[in-house]
Amino acid sequence: SQYHKMYRTVKATSGRQIFQPLHTLRNAEKALLPGYHPFEWQPALKNVSSNTEVGIIDGLSGWVASVDDQQINTISRRFRYDVALAAALKDFEEDIVEGMREQQLDDSLTESFTVIIKEACDGMMGDVSEKHGNGPALPEKAVRFSFTIMSISAHSEDGKNVKIFQELKPNSELCCKPLCLMFADESDHETLTAILGPVVAEREAMKESRLILSIGGMLRSFRFVFRGTGYDEKLVRDVEGLEASGSTYICTLCDSTRAEASQNMVLHTITRSHEENLERYEIWRTNPYSESADELRDRVKGVSAKPFLETLPSIDAVHCDIGRA
Q1: Beta bridge pairs of residue 77
Q2: C-beta separation of 144 from 108 below 8 A
Q3: Where are the domains positioned within the chain?
Q4: Cα separation of the two ends of the chain
Q5: Cα(256)–Cα(95) distance, rounded to whole angstroms?
Q6: Which tens digits make up the pLDDT trace of 59-103?
Q7: Which of 2, 128, 10, 30 is CA-nearest to residue 19?
Q8: Higher model confidence: residue 76 or residue 319?
Q9: Rounded distance, CA 54 to CA 79, Å?
Q10: How far apart, in whole angstroms, are the C-alpha atoms of residue 77 and residue 96?
Q11: Cβ(142)–Cβ(188) under 8 Å?
């Protein structure tokens, strides 16, 4: 049922009956993949190839294994993040032009477009293993990292920020663009780090640059703002390097223990930052004060792995529960 709507949409848009032999389906899928659109970044993205004609790549391609690293036993496929964003914006070309017209913006406006991106990542339930194949043994779980274009706005000549596109159903799977799929358990910190690390590096590079893309026959400049709000608590714990959800430290944003939270349901403040978690990881790794395991755990408050995906401090699942209580 999770994919039923998507299949219905494919049938409605392409007019094809989808219960067909696999090779026919694969060809139909190829026609639905994003096409190639020339674009560039100003300034050029750091540590990202300037070649823009890049299709689906191996999810492990950005990972350089050292001698000590275990061979990561997974299969992953993804788009390069900047290529995916350019293709997604081209999908909205008509909406952008129409939005500018409706807001009575000058058609020759080329600068100051801002795109808000919502990122989401979650483990997919269910058995995705290959039952009768003779391929490699893989985890029976999958993880999907995706993004949604939430809104596009432009700076008008009088300095106002005018919204020219807004996603009306931001939680629908029909506007959620898959960026990366991997066979992995979402609790597998090492595999997630290996695959999403390069994705995060590409996103960091894009924050410092502008995408130059032809929309409505003119080259226009887009700035991206990323909001990582589509991660559940389990995934946030993993990518922030925290202990799993059974930990004494129940919160991903402060140092509350279960006992403290049950005594104090009101006075909770957000105290964690990504930088602090990195410092705590170093303390956990090096144990500079030669403490016992329990003392060390108490000092780092549940940080046990190196965080790699920064998350903005906003209200999390546990704080919501505490607030409701």
Answers
A1: 58, 181
A2: no
A3: 24-231, 239-324
A4: 34
A5: 46
A6: 988 666 665 666 677 889 999 999 999 999 999 999 999 999 999
A7: 10
A8: 76
A9: 8
A10: 30
A11: no
Contact between residue 294 and residue 311 where contact means Cβ atoms under 8 Å apart: no
Query: What's the half-sphere exposure (Cβ side, CA atoms, 13 Å) at 59?
Result: 25
Query: CB 170: neighbour CB atoms within 10 A?
Result: 16
Give Cα separations from 255 to 186, 249, 299 (angstroms). Answer: 23, 6, 10
3-state helix, strand, coil in the chain (%, to 5): 30, 20, 45
Written as six digits, the tokens of 299 are: 């000092």
Q: What is the pLDDT of residues 218-246, one digit of tens each?
A: 999 999 999 888 888 888 888 888 888 78
Q: What is the largest CA-CA distance in the chain?
A: 67
CB 92 within 8 A of CB 220: no
Cβ count near 36 (within 10 Å) = 14
Beta pairing partners, 222:
113, 211
- Residue indicated by tokens 């919502």: 118
